[in-house]
Structure formats: structure tokens, C-alpha cells
Amino acid sequence: MDIVGNGFLARNLRALSDRHPDTVVLAAGVSWAGDSAQTDFDREERLLTEVAADCRATGRRLLFFSTASTGVYGKVSGPGREDVPVTPCTPYGAHKLALEQRLRDSGADHLILRLGHLVGRDQPPHQLLPLLVRQMRAGSVRVHRGTVRDLIHVDDVVSIIDRLLGQGLRGETVNVASGEAVPVERIVDHLEARLGLSVRREHQDVDAHHIISTEKLRALVPEVARMGFGPLYYQRVLDSFVDHQLAAARTAGPSSEEA
């Protein structure tokens, strides 16, 4: 496969670089839902248009990463499914949904994956886990009551992508997530215990609870049943993240942060 981009997900997908030669992976889009500028949205739109046109001309399939976040599924009643109309809740959600439609209209063979919150080694500092840990080490953390996150380890995502691409899927949209809506309070609880911290929590009330349906994913990739998705899966994901952070700090020496 050809990979466009060099960010967190793109680097992890390099393990598949010698597979799926009929596929171009667009892994250079906007990855920060909270504070992205219109110029970033415009850049991703232009890039998608260019890559889709090239794929249409060469007959290759374009793999595009969208989002299964609150910005897309926050107003859905019940689990967010790929086959139901959705009303975006945020500019980021509206942007990603618009790009999905632009790709469908482009005439290029494609596969759209709506991703949960990826966790793994060497995440950029603006993403959820690095941001939470930084806040916690500073002594306080902002927690939105009612907010949930569906955490999924990037290694599991890469395995799922490999299997989906191997099926030759085209023209499909698939949620790639664990299917577990974990309250952010519980995520902070686990990080606090693992890092040996006691932090002050600044609470804000929000209405942002949503669940991501993985029914279609499980039907397409039965192997996910062996990935351990379930109520405690998020703890294993967090443990892996913390273990890597602590190991990296020990390697770097005493002057660095522990996580």
C-alpha cells in the first residue's frame, strides 16, 4: 500500500506497507477535534480531492479515515451505526462527514473507516491520553461529566485494517472501535492509580454520551472477538500506554518526566 502522511497512524500502518498494493491510505488529515482551524480543514479537503482523483485514474482504492466521535454520533439515539443518518455536533464532525460524501461522489473506489479514540506509543501531545497525563502531572485535570470515550489500541486498529483491506471491500463505511463507551472519569481513575497520583478534578457538565456500534465490524472481522473488547478492555489499553511512557522515561534518564 501507499501511505500518504507521516503522523501517528501513518507510522503504525507502515507495518502493512508491503501488503494491499491496490490501496492508497490517506493518513494525513485533521486529527485534533478540539481546536482545528478552517485552514486545516481546507488543506485536508484539497488533499482528499487530489488523492481521490489519482485513485480514480489509476483504479486503486482509497482508504479514508473519518471519525466515530461525539461530533458525528453525539445526537444519535442508541448506538451510532454506519447506516443511519447523522447530524454532526461539532465543526470537526461536520468536516469529516462532508469529506466522506465528497469521496463517495468522486468516483474513486474507496473504504471509509470511522475511528474511535486511538491509543498507542508516541502519540502526538495534543491527543487525549498525552494531554490527560500532562494535566494530571501538573496537579489538576479538566473532566467533562457525562463525556465518554471509546478507546482502542492502535495495534488492534492496524490488525483490523489489514483484515478489512484483505476482503477487497469497496464503497463501504465501517466503525472501527471497541464498542465500549468509557466515562472519562473512569479513565482518569485508572490513570491516577497507575501513575500513583492524586489530582484535583475540575468538573464541567456536558451532554456528550454516545455508544459506537460495532455490529458491522464484528460481522466483517470475526477475529475482533479475540481482541478482548469489553468493559475492561480500556484498562488494558491504558496500562499499555502507561507502561510505555514509564519505560521511555527510564531510558531517557532522571531529568525527564515519568509519563
UniProtKB/TrEMBL annotation:
Alphabetized PANTHER family for the sequence: DTDP-D-GLUCOSE 4,6-DEHYDRATASE-RELATED (PTHR43000)
Origin organism lineage: Bacteria, Bacillati, Actinomycetota, Actinomycetes, Kitasatosporales
Organism: Streptomyces sp. PGA64
Start and end residues of each NAD-dependent epimerase/dehydratase domain: 14-177
Similarity annotation: Belongs to the NAD(P)-dependent epimerase/dehydratase family.
Protein's name in the database: PgaR
Pfam families xref list: Epimerase (PF01370)
Domain of life, source organism: Bacteria
